[in-house]
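User: What would this chain look like folded?
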Amino acid sequence: MARRLTTLLVATGLLTATLGMASPDQAADAGRHRKLDVATYNVYQGTDLTTLVAAPNLPELVRRAGIAYGQVVATDFPSRAQAIARLIKKERPEVIGLQEVALWRTGPLGGDLTTTYDFLAILLDALHAEGLDYRADAVDTTFSGTLPISATRQASFTDRDVILVREGVRTEHAESHLYAAKLVVPTPFGITFTIPRGWSSVDVNLPGGPVRVANTHLEPVAPPIRNAQAQELHTVLEQSPYPVTAVGDFNSLPTDTTGPYGTFTGGGYVDAWHAVEPGKSGFTTTQDPDLRNVPSKLSRRVDYVFHRAGRLAAVRAEVFGDKLTDRTPTGLWPSDHAGLAVRLRGARR
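Assistant: Here's the prediction, encoded as structure tokens.
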């Protein structure tokens, strides 16, 4: 009797439903209904540090470091974080890849340091004030260094890339890594700066199955190192058993066929912006370091949401943080970049 009942249930499809198991057709249908809203945003560390490596001597290095830290104060991340939170509230992505999520600390020369600007904590508080609760599921700490900024004070800068996940969204297998290829910059006064970059990923659990989301910020000034980093990330993501989207500041133009853009679009990935908004500029970079330029100076596209072809499809793409009305009350752009928000769905196969 039990065997005949089981046979009957299987024949009618009721056993599959009762046990919560999906048939192949049901699983394929669930995959097609997989939906994920993602975004990428380089929130700007608050200052231009490239002038430091060109300093001809130590006194000039200290002078330039002092100017750089003064710009951190002037670009006022607490105010910018409020503007960024309002932008994110409009988009409401489940997952956000952030770059340049700085940690700044200062203190007396030779003494203890105190945190002055923790961009991650400040932004999470600003999001909470807008009624949005996100958590940092993956934090990739890359460069960290300390320099005098005057005859009596010093400042410490730590660069981080972060994957934020909206509360209520389940994720697993968060990981962060540094790339093997690193920029090494010697200076005329004998100090060598080593600048690592890295990537993070999380698996987002969705009704149609997991999606792996990776976030990165590739080397901006040295193409051979940037290209090696992109190749490393692409190789790692090829091992994913799940559909993949890679977001971040790739520092690579759409014409860069031998660099990161070509590595991904020539290696099985789709540029979501180009797929949804072909022919539109989608510029995401770069405003002036003081963030006060008018009009906007966004004139290049280097921030992307790539997704693995055949497994996901982009159905919506929006650049945000690029309008004059997005600025702070004192006229600061939210960042020197604009952000990019994309809606992904499971692709029909």
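The CA atoms of residues 25 and 31 lie 10 Å apart. If you want, I can go into more detail on any region.
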